[in-house]
Structure formats: C-alpha cells, structure tokens
Amino acid sequence: MSDIDDDGKIWLRGSVRPEYGVRIGDRYFVTGKEDSENSNCFIRQKYLVVDLHDPKKQYRIFRRFSLDLQPHFSGTLFNGFTKTRHADIKVVTYKDKKVEQFVLEGEDYLLNSDSLIDPIQIMRLTGWK
Predict the structure, then answer these.
(1) What whole-number distance in Å separates Cα of residue 33 and Cα of residue 37?
(2) What is the rounded CA–CA span in Å between residue 30 and residue 61?
(3) Contact at 8 Å (CB) between 34 and 101?
(4) What are the Cα distances from residue 96, in Å, to 2, 33, 51, 72?
(5) Which of 6, 39, 107, 126 is most solvent-facing, going by the fewest CB within 10 Å?
(6) Angle at 120 between CA 6 and CA 115, to 5 degrees
(7) pTM of the full predicted structure?
C-alpha cells in the first residue's frame, strides 16, 4: 500500500463496530473491508482503487473512490493507525453513491482468482478509464 499514508480502524458515528479505513494526506476513506478479506489499496490517476478478495467465499470486489469526493460521515480513529494522531474526523465511505463498484464471483472469479491483480488488469476488467 505504498500510496496510502496510514491505515487502521475507524469508528463511524451510529455504527455497531469499527471499519477498516485508509488515510491519504488529510483525507480518510472507509473501504468496506471485512475481516475475512485480503485487501490491496492504491492510487491510480485521481482515484483510490480498493481490491477486496475473499478466496474462501470466492469473490472479489473492486471499488473506486474519487479523491475529490467530499466526506459526509463523522467518525473517530479507533486503532491500527500508527502514523496518525487519534482524532474525530470526516470520512468518505464505500456507501457513498458516487463510489464505483465491480464484483467478480462464480465462474468469473475462478478465471481471475490470482491473489494480486495488477492495476492495468483491474481497469480492463471493470471498464474504468
């Protein structure tokens, strides 16, 4: 995650549990990563791209967050952030209507089940430019 400044759990106001998130500069993003999923996050052009992969359940979710999205959710840094001071923050989450998502599962998943897919292949699979 070389493009990511820090990562850890963020407690969103009204949520029952903390969620995984990343910090890019002074912006925070909750990616929607579940504990059972492998995750790879990187910056491509003006987007944060998130690759969530669960080999046991055989699915892969790609999410693309514009770095220009305005944060609307209130949260608090919970744990795991080692380069960031504890703070109350505003967050962009995967639930935002402007976050793009692409899912591979079933036969499609089996064709693309490598643990890592390079960014160019992700862009081809999703049709994102």
Answers:
(1) 6
(2) 14
(3) no
(4) 24, 15, 17, 9
(5) 107
(6) 65
(7) 0.89
